Sequence to fold (274 residues):
Amino acid sequence: MSVRKLKPITPGQRFRVVNGFDAITTDKPEKSLLAPKKRSGGRNSQGKMTMRYIGGGHKKRYRIIDFKRNKTGIPAEVKSIEYDPNRTAFIALLNYQDGEKRYMIAQSGLQVGQTVVSGEKIAPEIGNAMPLSQIPLGTVISCIELHPGQGAVMARSAGAFAQLMARDGKFATIKLPSGETRLILVNCLATIGVVSNSDHQLLVSGKAGRSRWLGRRPRTRPVVMNPVDHPMGGGEGKASGGHPRSRNGIPAKGYRTRSKTKASNKYIIERRKK
Fold:
């Protein structure tokens, strides 16, 4: 993993920091695992804008990722590590011994030619997917299921990882990337290792146009709106705008919005830090 700082030969490149893409081994995706990806531009079926600040962006195709890792006991060779425009992490193309090809989220340190496998009673090595009941305590894990068979939903972005802290009966205690400590059923799958592309947080876009390539239109600050448009709008000159809050009046910056009667509250041992 490395980043490159570009020479300031244009204003947009003056502060630009780009990914070195050292881990990437090919720029051609597997055709059988591509799907079309339509853009809505933030409009609904009537053509009315329901989400602001969405539109444009470079054309992409979706890479079908195997989040479930349900091909148990069949070893697969890592054929390539690839860039995915739909996520911050890199992805790995797996060639299974029975001839099937699948994409998975690549873990940091995963090499081309390496063999990965999912299932029970396998070695806890990078890229292998195992139930939490089989993983040694203290292991760094990622791509974690919340319900058995659901597929990975937690710790999937670049550089993310969680840690298996303890096991008690049918629950395992996991420390999540947010700092939250939570109980998860021990028959949920998780992948060994840290998600790849941890340098993603060091990147600097360099210019506003790069946000447009990602499909983000310019965002209007609430303070410069009129009172009819936002609770923080109005006032003469640079008025402070009152307490920070959302468009529908919910306070921001520290206000807890999680329901006190939510069913999953009993599984959270320690909330994330403010």
User: Anything to note?
Assistant: The helical segments are 209-213. Residues 209-213 form the longest helix (5 residues). The chain has a mean pLDDT of 95. Residues 228 and 234 are 8 Å apart (CA to CA).
